[in-house]
């Protein structure tokens, strides 16, 4: 009886864990090519690409949850960033830092 209960709890937990979909986190360089927001100003986003692995044509949308952070992001600038994605949801910006171009 005890083994059956443990087996049932394990199966339920496995089913619940699989419903959430995969969680992906990525750290990369990004070049922001476009900024925008929804018509009701509730969602802010940037369109960007990783210059080390993608072309400008492969740019993707990243949701920026904080309006103040979105206000500081500039187009055509390079950033070091950390962003996440859960299941089929959009990429979400977690952290971003501007990279200064150093000239010799």
Structural class: alpha+beta
Could you tell me the number of beta strands? 5
The low-confidence runs, each spanning 5 or more residues with pLDDT under 50, are: none
Radius of gyration: 19 Å
Count of helical stretches: 2
Characterization of the model:
- By secondary structure, this protein is an alpha+beta fold.
- The protein is built from two helices and five strands.
- The mean pLDDT is 86.
- Strands 1-2-3-5-4 form a five-stranded mixed beta barrel.
- The N and C termini lie far apart (73 Å).
- The longest helix is centred in the first third of the chain and has 18 residues, at 2-19.
- Strand 1 (23-37) and strand 2 (44-49) form a beta hairpin.
- 23% of the residues lie in helices and 41% in strands.
What brief labels describe this structure?
5-stranded mixed barrel, 41% strand, 5 strands, alpha+beta, 104 residues
How are the SSEs placed, and which strands pair?
Blueprint lengths: L1 H18 L3 E15 L6 E6 L10 E5 L2 H6 L5 E9 L4 E8 L6
Parallel strand pairs: 3-5
Antiparallel strand pairs: 1-2, 1-4, 2-3, 4-5
Q: What's this entry about, in short?
A:
With 104 residues, the chain is α+β, with helices and mostly antiparallel strands. Helix content is 23%, strand content 41%.
């Amino acid at each position: 009886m005890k083994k059956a209960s443990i087996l049932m709890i394990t199966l339920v937990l496995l089913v619940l864990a699989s419903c959430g979909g995969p969680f992906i986190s990525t750290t990369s360089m990004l070049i922001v090519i476009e900024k925008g927001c929804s018509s009701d100003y509730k969602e802010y986003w940037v369109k960007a690409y990783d210059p080390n692995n993608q072309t400008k044509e492969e740019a993707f949308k990243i949701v920026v949850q904080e309006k103040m952070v979105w206000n500081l992001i500039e187009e055509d600038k390079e950033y070091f960033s950390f962003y996440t994605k859960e299941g089929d949801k959009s990429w979400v910006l977690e952290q971003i830092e501007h990279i200064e171009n150093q000239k010799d």
